[in-house]
From TrEMBL:
Protein name per UniProt: Alpha-glucosidase (Family GH31 glycosyl hydrolase)
Record has Repressor as a keyword: no
Protein family according to the UniProt entry: Belongs to the glycosyl hydrolase 31 family.
Annotated ranges, domain Glycoside hydrolase family 31 TIM barrel: 262-545
SUPFAM superfamilies registered for this protein in UniProt: (Trans)glycosidases (SSF51445), Glycosyl hydrolase domain (SSF51011)
Glycosyl hydrolase family 31 C-terminal domain span: 555-637
A matching Pfam family: Glyco_hydro_31_2nd
One MF term in the entry's GO annotations: hydrolase activity
Entry keyword set: Glycosidase, Hydrolase, Signal
Domain of life, source organism: Bacteria
Signal sequence range: 1-27
Amino acid sequence: MGRTISLAVALATAVASCLGLAPVAAASGLSVDRSGYRLDIDRAPFRLTVRHGGQVVLRTASPAIDFDGGTVTNVRSSHYSAGNLVLSLGTTDPARTVQLTIGPGEHRFSLAAQVRPPSAGRLGVHYDLASGGHWYGQGETTRGAQDPIAFQPWPLETGQPLDPAFGPAEYYMTEPFWFTSRGSGLYLLGNGVKDVSLGNRHPGVFDLTELAGGELSATVLVRDTAREVFQDYVGIAGKPEKSDAPDYQYREPVWNSWAQFYTAVTQQGFLDWARGIHDAGIPAHTFSLDDGWSAHYGDFTFNAKFPDPHGMVDQVHRLGARFGLWVSLWANPDSANYALAASRGWLLKSKADPAKPCTVQWWNGSAGIVDLANPEANAWYQGQLHQLMTDYGVDGFKFDTRFFDESCAPYRPDLSMADYQRLGAQMADGYDLQGVGIRSHWTGAQRNGFVVREIDKEANFAALGVAVRQLLALSTVGYPFVTSDMIGGSDGQHPDRQVLIRWAQAAAATPLMYASTSPVGFDAQTVQYYRDAVRLHERLTPYILRQRDRALATGEPIMKPLFFEDPQDQAAYTITDEWLLGDGLLVAPVLTEGTSRDVHLGHGAWFDVANHRVVRGDLHDYHAGPGTLPLFVRMGTGDTDSLLAALL
């Protein structure tokens, strides 16, 4: 093993000069130990090891760093500059080195790697997955052909996710932040496109690769627990400044037509669906008309299936509900708006040929994207939204779109992909999103306080499990106001009654409910179970609103993993089908066929709501009939009495 340079991660900017430390020669060592954790740097072969409380909490793999044409081998020289430790790293390419700058700070340190001489190619930093224990973060995950519709591992290393286009412009809800069961975390800086693999490209290795520019920067966080690392990231990304959804949208479901009809929706079918839900006594604050209403994608005119849009909206209002409409920034070439926008330069331009609109692929073919950074294009697009509200009485919108694509050129050279996320958020924030929310992401988007909806799911039990794991993933990267995909799934299929009932029950114990498939088309018992789930959610609403207010004050998730509350419970780190709603309510829904499941309870005493008893420890073969959602109230907290009053 090579010689080691030891540097305390808590070293502040001026520590080196205050302690009288001289620049470090290549053959000498430095040992400064502060705040109880340490960064060890092995000279040859080069390796970084982070220790906290005597335990390894993060370690680089071999090779630790690579780039186009070479890998890092050893530390050639080192010195201090402005309180940072600067290393010159030798590589297998005799013409190139890598400069690694380590910037110490309280409970964290920064890493900035640059290929020297400068390179336009990729640069990757690689970590040993096992060194961190279990891994979480990132948000929605993908693995090759598997996208977040049917794929979401928890913890991450159990699924070997791979995202070769990781960045602010992708449609998936992703976040450049990961944290571990051992209290370490990584926050990746920069808005470029990255390749991210957790054990997929190389077994047991977390590969973080910046695809262009020859530079990569990150912050390493070190804390006692995973929850504390998450809280540090909230300090970086920001907590919600407001909740985009008013109280009534937490209390009752929003009903969207997509999974009920897909694009075959008609005016009469939509109204019959809404009336059926209303007449069955199932609450609804909004009925939202999804895809299938416009003449062409990109146009804001109703097609022939909707002969009287104004009358349709009026009838929804007479049911005591609001009316919502699905819209997008995508415009297909056969639309009138595409021709107009292209002629006036209101679509994003092609990076390859800026004289032409950028052409992207989405699930409805080829399209251009309205350029929100162009003030005229932005005003034109929003003018059409306001016209729909004025002409027909539309109350709000479901925005379903990408704001940018990597193949496009920005309106100005100084605008990044993350800037387009910000522009999209600013535009959407001017409208009622009706509890459907918006898919706007990347560090800082948390401040907007939007409801965040998952990507579509298949209509089966496996997808329900994916939905639950994805809610936990989104909640633990800073988005507390989450809603699952439409109850029952929405990926071109229809659920059976068991899936629909169990999905409704699970959704009842999440922050908001997002519905589509009507139970009215099933038997009376299904309608009753569904109605019971919605009524349960209504009873939980005062508690959920208190958790919302807590999230606004602290950034704390509403829906969280069990290990946030009990970090010493090692079994909790791999629980995939339970969660805490707030700190006081443990939810253990049935996510498979059948009427029983095992339940893992955290420390202390819990009140079993279904069986009116106090229980402790794990429960095996817990019976939960088709109308039962297993709920457990933590005893002895400030919420115990109010929760029991609401649930009994």
